[in-house]
Amino acid sequence: MNRILKDPSGSAKQVRQNYSPPTVTANGRPRVEGKFIFAGDEKLYVRGVTYGTFRPDANGQQFPSPEVVESDFAAMAANNFNAVRTYTVPPRWLLDAAQRYDLYVMVGLPWVQHVAFLDNKKQRLSNETRIRDGVRSCAGHPAILCFALGNEIPASIVRWHGAKRIERFIKRLYEIGRSEDSFGLFTYVNYPSTEYLNLPFLDFVCFNVYLEDQKRLEAYLARLQNIAGDRPLVMAEVGLDSRRNGELKQAEALGWQIQTTFAAGCAGAFVFSWTDEWFRGGFDIEDWDFGVTTRDRRAKPALARMRKAFAEGPFPADFRWPRVSVVVCSYNGSRTIRECLEGLGRLDYPNYEVIVVNDGSTDTTAAIASEYDVRLISTKNRGLSNARNTGIEAATGEIVAYIDDDASPDPHWLTYLAIAFQNSSHAGIGGPNIAPAGDGHTAHCVAHAPGNPVHILLSDQEAEHIPGCNMAFRKACLQEIGGFDPNLRVAGDDVDLCWRLQQRGWTLGFSPAAMVWHHRRNSVRAYWKQQQGYGKAEGLLEKKWPEKYNPLGHVSWVGRVYGNGFTQMLGRRRGRIYQGIWGSAPFQSIYQPAPTRLRSLPMMPEWFLVILALAVFSAFGFLWRPLFLTAPLLLVAVGALLAQAIMNAAQSPVANATMAPFARVRLRVLTAFLHVVQPLARLRGRLRCGLTPWRARGSRRSSLPFPRTFNIWREYWQAPDKWLEGLEVELRYRGAIVRRGGDFDRWDLEVRSGIFGGARLLMVIEEHGAGKQLARFRVWPKYSLIAVALPLSCISLSIIAGFDSAQLACPIFAALALLFVVRAFRDCAEATALLFHALGKMKGREAAACSVVSEQPLSEIISPAVGQSLIARKDNAMAQPKPFATAAVGRRSSLY
């Protein structure tokens, strides 16, 4: 471990303490903290081996004699194992033997699970009794690592009962076990055929995985880490049969399986098994040899390979650790920065520096930072992005890692980041940020409310966005794009940077083990202020990246959003489970359909505008009584909002079994309240920054919105997609919001000026020989559904009010209808004008370059000055677009 606290004389000392496995003591029972398991103050990497099952003796005991167990445990300890997994409940004397050799025991709690046990009440109660008795017999023993509440319930049984019933039963077993040993850890050992089981109440996640290809194992471990979320992932079984593959092949495979498991950020692994001696179903198993020793305890080559792998693990011994510059930007962060710097001082990494950028703080931030061996840089208050850029300039490392001043890293944070950079070409890599325990009830509720920093993944290993409280980048990449945007002073800088890196063609990665502890806001007022600031940042981002936002003002992420506190849609289905024909698929997963826009509406901040509009219409009922009919719609809109908040609060783990019932209810009420407050705060921030549903983007030019054609002659040949790319760049430079046509669309580009309408373009290329081309463009207005529905509704209401002699309501609705028609006409007129202006610019350049015959892209034919102005955005942040033929396709998610 490294500590960077200065001694009283002011000279910096850095002491490295070698890691040694903790000794099992009564006061050091294992516990879960974030993605890892701890014993005492030390992280416990499980280096385990399975033991049994063995032929029962005369007393029904499924373990060898005490002398054999003693000998086996001594050999395990000598070969760097620190844990053993049993499949049946061990006697106390076996646990005592494990304690003598510093071995933790994962206790398997066997019960009848290979039959339809939920159909038989007697069998179900018998299973519950076996769990209770098994935990009770071992409860409190210091050698216990955890209790396994089951092992691989057959996929056919789960399919028979249904996943929900199985999940509820395992939760029932968990509650029984917890009542017998309140400080014990509990897990369930799953396998790929029932991967879809959702068991969030377990302390950590266990899987049995047998994959004989290293790349496939790496990919699947990344998937399992995303399933595990903020909990540790332990491989409960890995191994290879030496009878079919040979002892040398077994040794080789076990070596890379363990290395791959630790590199993937797992908390440990159990090798299957200690010996070839194996008894199951009333028979000795003679046709499989998975042991690292034979039946007579002769060591196989795999044992020596395992001893070496465990000795080198969890990190490679010959790794070249790159220099990392850790940057902490702080403005008045005196309340939390000491904890942050203490955590950075405990980093177990051989080659790093810490840079603290004091961004004009008026409290004691600078004084606190000066107590530590860090490079302190104090500046005027210039905003978060400028502070991050100052860190880039001062950094001496090839990797620049950022952590917030209210966060504290895991001791191996930089280690996992460095390994991830070494094994990939990603420009940036992030990791999870987890709320620490002990921050109070409000902070705990905030941690399970929407709006917290999250990561968004395109795949199990590639990210679309990584949050600013835990992100690292190659310094060269940061310098090439010019660092962070100084205009984003408080938030949104990480989103903008991720988009710009990806626009350059680089990728982002995610390391699930590179975790930091990130404090959440501990008061409703602070949470409100934070979410309002995020809303302002969204407004600034929309002005810079209008093409990233839909007409309602939301980012439609291609990837999947991971994190706590996301609002679940009412009526949302669990999703479809891929099980294969007749349940034959070996890997079975849940496939969740993308949410429809209609079902997503109540999740958006703008839903409050819908509520406001319905409230206004209901109030107009005093002018015209039929408008009181909108009152039920108002109740439905409010009810949908409250129902979602209550549903999410009920699903959030905000209470524990020892908490008083009233306290649990209070926490759930607070969590539900935060689900209501968050979108309202975001809405206020958005409105103040101009991000409204009725916003308009682009120039203020207008052109009559009716279908027209436009022709451009070119003296040299160019591919059709290059024509469209050039037009797209021109439109974006003019501030237009441009969307490309999809695989089933009979149009090529769409320009959106506002929520009420836009214009579309279709192109055809005529080939005239000798490389000469005539490009024909058809442009026509495109009115949105809302542009038709609102005026028609208002006209209808106006007519009805007129027949009903409602002298005030009739002209009001007529005026509203006219207002909507004028706005729709203007949106389409501006979009049409943008298209024709861009086409006119292209035609003018072609006329100037008509004597040039080349197959080069247009941007290389025209003058460098003009070409640069086309390629660059006004904010100098936009690079060349991707090829027109490649459109982003994938599952879309929302932050809300």
Task: Give the gist of this structure.
With 896 residues, this protein is α/β, with parallel strands linked by helices. The strands form seven sheets. A ten-stranded mixed β-sheet has the order 16-15-14-17-23-19-24-22-21-26, sandwiched between helices. The protein has an eight-stranded parallel barrel with strand order 4-5-6-7-8-9-10-11, surrounded by five helices. The radius of gyration is 32 Å and the shape is globular.
Q: Roughly how many Å apart are the termini?
A: 40 Å
**Beta-strand level of the residues, as a percent range?**
15-25%
| Percent helix range | 25-40%
Q: Work out the number of β strands.
A: 33
Number of helices: 26
The biggest sheet amounts to: 10 strands, mixed
Mean pLDDT: 85
Assembly status: single chain
Overall spatial form: globular
* Strand adjacency order, main sheet: 16-15-14-17-23-19-24-22-21-26
Radius of gyration: 32 Å
Structural class: alpha/beta
Low-confidence stretches: 1-26, 851-896
Can you offer a commentary on this structure?
Helix 3 runs parallel beside helix 5 (163-180) and helix 8 (247-263) packs parallel to helix 9 (301-312). The chain is globular. It has 26 helices and 33 strands. The protein has a 10-stranded mixed sheet with strand order 16-15-14-17-23-19-24-22-21-26, with helices on both faces. Strands 4-5-6-7-8-9-10-11 form an 8-stranded parallel beta barrel, surrounded by 5 helices. Mean pLDDT is 85; it is low at 1-26 and 851-896. By secondary structure, it is of the alpha/beta class. It starts with 30 loop residues before the first strand and ends in a 25-residue tail after the last helix.
